[in-house]
Amino acid sequence: MIRCSNISLTLGGKRIFDNLNLAVPTSSRMGVVGDNGAGKTTLFRLIAGEISPDRGEVSFPSRWRLGYLPQDLVEVGNAPLMELLKEKTGLAHIERDLNEVRNRLSGLKPHSRERTSLLDRHDRLVVSYEALDGYGFEAMAAKILKGLGFRSGDEKRMSGEFSGGWKMRISLASLLLSRPDVLLLDEPTNHLDTESMEWLEGYLASFQGTLLAISHDRRFLDKLTGVTVEISGGMARPYPGNFSEYVRKRSQELEEAEKLAKKQEKEIARTASFIERFRYKASKAAQVQSRIRALEKIDRVETAEASRRVSMRFPPCPRSGLE
Ligand SMILES: Nc1ncnc2c1ncn2[C@@H]1O[C@H](COP(=O)(O)OP(=O)(O)OP(=O)(O)O)[C@@H](O)[C@H]1O
Ligand SMILES: [Mg+2]
What we know:
Layout: E1 2-11, E2 14-24, E3 29-33, H1 40-47, E4 55-59, E5 66-69, H2 81-89, H3 91-106, H4 113-131, H5 137-147, H6 164-177, E6 182-186, H7 194-205, E7 210-214, H8 218-224, E8 227-232, E9 235-240, H9 243-278, H10 285-297
Parallel strand pairs: 3-7, 3-8, 5-6, 6-7
Antiparallel strand pairs: 1-2, 1-4, 8-9
Bound molecules: adenosine-5'-triphosphate (ATP) and magnesium ion (MG).
């Protein structure tokens, strides 16, 4: 479970989150939606640990590994593609350490103390190597690159030669290959053609970990997500169901709010006309005062168009002394 608790954050003088709470159950598939600038990317950056909240905290099991695909293109480095993928997933590092340990072991006498500790290290490295499926890595990498639209032979090309959109695919490939427990994908389909998009959908459908995806692509979200969280007004509101179900529930909510707001408007108008009629009538002063207070206390229903909210102000009316 990833838990965002009581998160508040101000960036550049703008309040982005105001006591945001969100629980992401393990293995859930969550679509993250909201207006431009609502804070979707910022939420991912908080979860990925790139930024810290002013208040509150993000927590998840410490052994979990997160894979974060940012919305904006990032430089991927320059190396032959397959080598780059091994570097980025940490496999190259493990391979180097394994080779070094094996070389040192071959030069040591049996039963020496150094040998025992090196053997321990060797075993730990093998576990890490297997966790990244080191033996099947190149085959898996080739499959993923193909799925994302790379051509055979591209794995030998220098990564720096690829254009921005392809660099994003390289980042995505290395994320998938690093076998994270959590995938945070910010607009992953932006730079993909239909075929690669469909391949990614298939791949993610069998992803066992926790998936959070920000996307403007309704079809993508509908296929992959089981819960949709809306970021708005500095808070997060989860809705069970995929994007289409979210849209349905959201419009139902808005319809109900509109109905309630209309009822409220009528009530307000009735009260206002009572106040207008009797505000200078001394015998009604107490009732007028209590209605003014009631009006002030009304918790106005939020509708789609906040600007339509009725706003009424009454000038102070003379007190009659009869209260
Ligand atoms: N480093 C920063 N400094 C100042 N303001 C920032 C910073 N990062 C984000 N913001 C502001 O925070 C708000 C939320 O930004 P964010 O990128 O999280 O929105 P978003 O929901 O991902 O939008 P979009 O749908 O356009 O990607 C925006 O108003 C943005 O301008
Ligand atoms: Mg964004």
